[in-house]
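PT: before anyone asks, these are the final sequences, not the draft ones from last week. 316 residues across everything. Please model them as a single complex and drop the result in this thread when it's through.
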Amino acid sequence: MIALYVVAAIAVFAAIRVIVEKNTGRKLPYANVLGFAVSGAVVLLIDHPLALVAAAAYFVGSTLESNAIASTYAGGVKR
Amino acid sequence: MLDEILHIMAAAIISWILFVTVDIFFKLPETGGVSGASAIARDIEAGGGALSGGTMMGNIVCSPDASAGTLLAACGVYVAGITGGLAAAVMVYVGNRICHDPGYAGTTGAVLATFVIYAFTLAGFAATDFIAGMVIAILTIQGLSHVHASRLLARLWRVRQ
Amino acid sequence: MILILEAAFGFIALVGAISAALIRDSYGKLISLGVLVAGILPFIVDRGYIDVAITVALIAPIATIFVLMVARREEA
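LR: through. Structure below.
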């Protein structure tokens, strides 16, 4: 299945760019691409409804994590 | 094999148009939302990008939006047809609320994408083409050049205003 | 999983782990740990442990949030 190879290649590319980028605010979009790619890869590997749940859980988790890092980096929620 | 590659590229273009349209419709590039998104937008602007485009990219990072909705809908349709896509939409809705996002961009994107992708599967595409296509689409916005992507999004945002 | 896919995700995990050790900036370290988890998740799923994958996927971000709370308290 070509789709899985495409997604894995994009994941590797995004992972390299996350690490190489120095600025935190610009790292996070690359990390987001990595999250998309791994979520897609999880579903492409196992064709089962639970894999969909795993992909959604991982994606929401990685988004929540990026959100927390970005908020803390920004100086916290303004009260 | 070449067939599949062409399908994936077509799926990428369709997914790109879908999620960018829904996100701009839901005013994602508007400044003043989540603090994390503003921080990312500031850094993208400092690197030479446009602020409103950067805000949309920041919002895509900080909460499941139409791009996430489209990806998970494609996964859902692959696993279980329309039911799977709508189940994915429910999960995107829950994810939005967990990330303190009161908006509906993600859920709308997911529901819309479910029907669009299902229609294309009847026309000879495979749902896997849309999974790969959506990842390619998000790569073009968030993973290649932040400067160019944010300027393009800012220009599309100006059209909407 | 086919060898080249295993190599790709293994590479991602390795890059995440090494950069977590070498990068000085705290936010950079946390993001590198995220890359590490992204690399190992496909291995867990591929073996069929989908429930383990769901658990890891939910716990790793919560752990990151706890680390951020600790870091913020030290900064303040």
